[in-house]
Design a protein that fits this description.
The complex is a heterodimer of chains A (111) and B (116). With 111 residues, chain A is mostly beta strands. Helix content of chain A is 0%, strand content 53%. Chain A has no helices and 11 strands. In chain A, a hairpin with a 6-residue loop joins β4 and β5. The mean pLDDT of chain A is 96. With 116 residues, chain B is an all-beta fold. In chain B, a hairpin with a 6-residue loop joins β5 and β6. The mean pLDDT of chain B is 96. The chains are: A mainly beta (111), B mainly beta (116). At the A-B interface, β5, β9 and β10 of A face β5, β9 and β10 of B.
Chain lengths: 111, 116
């Protein structure tokens, strides 16, 4: 069964960088993953799709501070030059035979 | 630009049904499927189902099968999600979303409150 695993929380200082990880279960390491941001009291916003080779496609208007990468079964989202409104939940998501599968989300705190 | 505009908040009693709409614009409606995702208070995202406007193919989450129906109306470019036999733990924000072309577009969400 396909499962996406994320750490529940991460934090970094204003202006610093943070790297979030989404790990695919064994046997699914070639799957692409989408990253979504959810600011407090708002709906999800698509950030980017990250492929197994590390290439990524960003959503409309997503700043260059957001980037994606891959390593084996891990898909990463890196946020550089952290700003206060980057404080949000970040969900990874993939597709499996027409079913959307979500990770549990990582809450990012900007110190 | 792609836009998905959902219907307004609903309050329902346990055992009732709710039907949420999602009106699409900015693209050819029949070219992309629509998924439905919900989020209970303080919880993560849960995929509920998917519908293709082109062939009316559908798929739904196993734990909701029998209670959820997803449909489309191609004459109005609108997708619908109906959830029956509502329970208190169905209280959530319900989102429609469209993927394809390496991107995902989200509706603004519809709060459904189930309360006696």
């Amino acid at each position: 069964q396909l499962v996406l695993t994320q750490s529940p929380s991460a934090s970094a200082s204003l202006g610093a960088s943070v790297k979030l990880t989404c790990t695919l279960t064994s046997g699914h390491s070639r799957y692409a993953v989408a990253w979504h941001q959810q600011q407090p009291e708002k709906g999800p916003r698509f950030l980017m799709k990250v492929n197994d080779d590390g290439s990524h496609n960003k959503g409309d208007g997503i700043p260059d501070r957001f980037s994606g990468s891959s390593s084996g079964a891990e898909r990463h989202l890196t946020i550089s030059s952290l700003q206060s409104d980057d404080e949000a939940d970040y969900f990874c998501q993939t597709w499996d035979a027409g079913v959307w599968v979500f990770g549990g989300g990582t809450k990012v705190t900007v110190l | 630009q792609v836009q998905l505009v959902q219907s307004g908040a609903e309050v329902k009693k346990p055992g009732a049904s709710v039907k949420v709409s999602c009106k699409a614009s900015g693209y050819t409606f029949t070219n992309y499927g629509i998924s439905w995702v919900r989020q209970a208070p303080g919880q993560g995202l849960e995929w509920m189902g998917w519908v293709s406007p082109y062939k009316d193919n559908t798929n739904s989450a196993q734990r909701l099968q029998g209670r959820v129906t997803v449909t489309t109306d191609t004459s109005t470019n609108t997708a619908y999600m109906e959830l029956r036999s509502l329970r208190s733990d169905d209280t959530a924000v319900y989102y429609c979303a469209r993927d394809g072309n390496h991107s995902v577009y989200w509706g603004q969400g519809t709060l459904v409150t189930v309360s006696s």
